[in-house]
Amino acid sequence: MHKLYSVLLFLLSITVFAQSQKADLIRIMTAPVSDTYEVAINERADFEVSIFKYGKLVKNASITYTIAPEQMDAQITKSIVLKDGQGLLEGIKLSEPGFIRLTVSY
């Protein structure tokens, strides 16, 4: 019985380890440049983006991104290469209060 518990514990630990590694393979991190996550009306909302693979920045990461007011068609659609794995994305301005949606694909 003791051996059975040991085998089950071993298999459980392998499963947990494999899942944690899979989740950390590619990570796309985005954040608004504004520390408060707010921008004034008619002020451009810019974003920082970083692409990580196994916890390290991906050199020459090719990304495609779109920026749009929430639930509206994209105003910006671009493909760029992030030489150092991170960069600044110039956003859009809103003429009234609202939310902006950024979608990044790597």
Description of the structure:
There is one protein chain. With 106 residues, the protein is of the alpha+beta class. Helices cover 21% and strands 40% of the residues. It contains one helix and seven strands. The strands form two sheets. Strands 1, 2, 3 and 6 form a four-stranded antiparallel β-sheet that branches. Strands 5-4-7 form a three-stranded antiparallel β-sheet, with no helix packed on it. Mean pLDDT is 85; it is low at 4-12 and 14-20.
- The dominant shape is elongated
Q: Tell me the structural class.
A: alpha+beta
Low-confidence stretches: 4-12, 14-20
Largest sheet: 4 strands, antiparallel
What share of the residues lie within helices?
A: 10-25%
Distance between the amino and carboxyl termini:
48 Å
- Helix segment tally: 1
Give average pLDDT, whole number: 85
* Gyration radius over CA: 20 Å
SSE order, as H and E?
Answer: HEEEEEEE
Q: What is the number of E strands?
A: 7
Q: What proportion of the residues form beta strands (DSSP E)?
A: 35-45%
Q: Can you describe this structure in just a few lines?
A:
By secondary structure, the chain is α+β, with helices and mostly antiparallel strands. The chain is built from one helix and seven strands; from the N terminus they run H-E-E-E-E-E-E-E.
